[in-house]
Design goal:
Strand content: 15-25%
Structural class: alpha+beta
Radius of gyration: 24 Å
Number of helices: 12
Order of helices and strands: HHEEEHEEEHEEHHHHEHEEHHEEEEHE
Distance between the termini: 84 Å
Helix content: 25-40%
Amino acid sequence: MRRSRMVLGALVPLAVVLAVYLVRSKGHKDGPDDAASIAKVGNVATPQTPPRPLLGGLDLTKITVNGGVASAQLEGKRTARLTIEPPLQRVAHEIMAMHHLPEAAVVLMDTVTGRVLVYASHVEKGPARDLCAEATAPAASVFKVVTGSALVESAGIGPDHRECYSGGEQRILERDLTPDPKRDRWCTTLAGAMGRSINTVFARLALQHLKPAVLEETAKNLGFGSTLPFDVPVQPSALRFPEDSLGFARTAAGFWNTTLSPIHAAWLSATMARGGEPVRPHVVSDVMDDAGKVVWTAPQAVSQPRVIKAATARAVTTMMDETVSDGTSYKAFHDGKGKAFLADIPIAGKTGTLTDGATQRFYTWFTGFSRASEDDSDDVDGSGASSTTHPVAVGVLVVNNPTWTIKANVLAREVLRAYFAEHKAANVTMPQLRLTTSKKKTAAPAKRSGKSSE
């Protein structure tokens, strides 16, 4: 009896400890540490992020290339070997430099593995900054990808939904939100509105079919307001919905109240490319100690839980196809004769353009991804990945003064050309790395903040 009591006495504290652990584990699921992540890895034994001390001191503005391998120094005389492809990184840097862009950033990532192939920032004047991880620029019309996702998933509105409209080219007024057969002379599908970035269509449909809480939930599922899991800290993309209906409609269409980082933009497109299941982006391939011994290797293709339905991702992809095939980026991706720069490589994308009259900053965005062509017989896993070239997603931000020579969609095109040419894609040539006699252009004048001109 005494021995039984002793055993029981030992088991009780153990049970209490176990119960406390389970309660804390359950509570931790929604705790402050997890609130900073977009999503948790499901059924993956390896950690979602390397232990923070492993990557201490990682500065992605100080990347070096030696022997064809990109690397960056870490604390403790350790070295991080990077997933970056130096030829592509050089193309991005040279194009941004030769156009003397005030600020610009490019992220190119493999949508199958999450490997970051280009991670390039350019600041014309002032100290170097990691613009790829900064979320200070307005998301502009890229936010239409979020609104489009909410309209499909929560309101059941598809790419073929037809809407007539008027106004809203550079700003949205109260009268633009009210259907008026006498004024609404133009009509388009939701896919066409995405491709040509028609503000009034998105503003009206959001006001008619979405509650702010619903759109906010979709935005949060797609990474807004959260810290993107990555190898260096990423500033969360901001989101705020004004209380008035006009402010809500404007935000849904991409007029202010949201910000975005280039790496988040690339992640967003990669998520659509993967049918709504994100992959964690990573730029560190492995870590070596001062003796050259590998002490940590990055897990490959760390998938994250689904954030939107597969059918929603397909519908939004159909909308994003219009941007390049017949919308705001048709000229950027086709020459004067209508020939595609990326022959036989379909590109889905979304532009964003917003002028801040107060600072005279001209923001342009392009985010998108490559798609497998219909006759791609090398598709090995249904994701569009061939035996030699994986599909990629890109996030590009260009911040210009009122006069400019290149927008984000052209910079994105050139980086994509470099990627596919480097990987021997048929009929794709490397971009020209010298400035031609292109004339400077002037952005649409803006007497006050909030003009969109796509």
